[in-house]
């Protein structure tokens, strides 16, 4: 089973509604690759230069269980399971965990 279209709609709407905090912040986007959705923030570090992308998190859908899991991104490019938030059938629960960022893993 592929990622449910309704879940992709929720993820894309969440990313699109994320308000940048300054002129250098260009917003979020959701990049879909198979059963994974990577959340990427674009930031313009230098005016008139292409923006730099920072991977914030990755959401993974397991078709067998129909559950979503949340992973935080490391500077090395690796992803680690975000332990405070276990798998959930509602992707909105995981997006709320990214927003709350209780352990400082997503927003730096």
TrEMBL record:
InterPro entries, per the entry: DUF3024 (IPR021388)
Pfam families recorded: DUF3024
Protein name: DUF3024 domain-containing protein
